[in-house]
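I'll show an entry:

:::
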Amino acid sequence: MKKTLLFSAAILALSACGGGDDHKSAATQSMDYLSEDSYAPRAMVHASGEMLERKAASPAPPIDQGATAPTGPMLAYTHNRSIESPAGDVEKVVNSHVSQCEKAGYSKCMVVNSNQNGIGEEWASANLHIRATPEWIDKFFKDLPDDLKASKSKITSASTSAQDLSTQIVDTDARLKAQLTLRDRLQALLTDRPSDLGDLIELERELSRVQSDIDANASVLASLRQRVAMSNLHMNYSAKSTVTSRSVWAPLADAFGNFFGNFASALGAVITTIANILPWLPVIGGLLWFGRWIYRKVWRKNKQEKALKTENVEKPSS
């Protein structure tokens, strides 16, 4: 009986994962597992044959099925905008955009990351990462030029990129449907064909593995759908440099401020050079003395001998 049940379970696994008419329309069917009651308690058969309930640890966030309906390419957008503002208004502009996102609510917009550097300084900068629905981002971009005029800010660069997640979503959805069918058939096998304790434990072990795969694929699919439903927006803010700003004269001020430090560094370099050369002075002096000795004893002596020979040769001729 044990071999028969295991053989039946293998047949069910092959038939469920092999695909059929139920899985050919994976791209056009909605998935019950990820509906609003997707994490409701599900039946589970214990080794004793008694039906138990499997409960989720925590409810999953609702997923917007309409935003990712497979009526066309499922694209995940990423937008980038760079904004230049007066130094004193960088913080104000950033806080204004954060406030707009928070007022829309987490279902439409959420702030993923926000940081500011040099608040109130000439070199102030900030970064803001927002994840929002395409509708909210479209409205935000439409109102952005008018909002920036009040603070004399402007957009210096803009870019948009998209990633097509259609294939990943359809494939993951198809795998999840096959695993759900396999799980239901394994549960039916446990219910309709009770046997000894060993066979039920083997089937429950297989059922537990299938359920683990279901949970993993459901998480991946939910993440992909969420990525399509919520676009990424990266905002980069920088302070606007003016002709009379302190940053223009900063190099001259730094030169005066670092005068004594630079002077000490140069003097230290001179002393270091002298210290490196000083041990070589005796060697250099010895080489000079030896060269002078060679000049006197050898080269000069040879020169004198040549002069004497020349004189001796010239005397008889005279």
Observations:
- The first strand starts at residue 42 and ends at 45.
- The radius of gyration is 42 Å.
- The mean pLDDT is 76.
- Strands lie at 42-45, 51-54, 75-85, 109-117, 125-132, 154-164, 231-239.
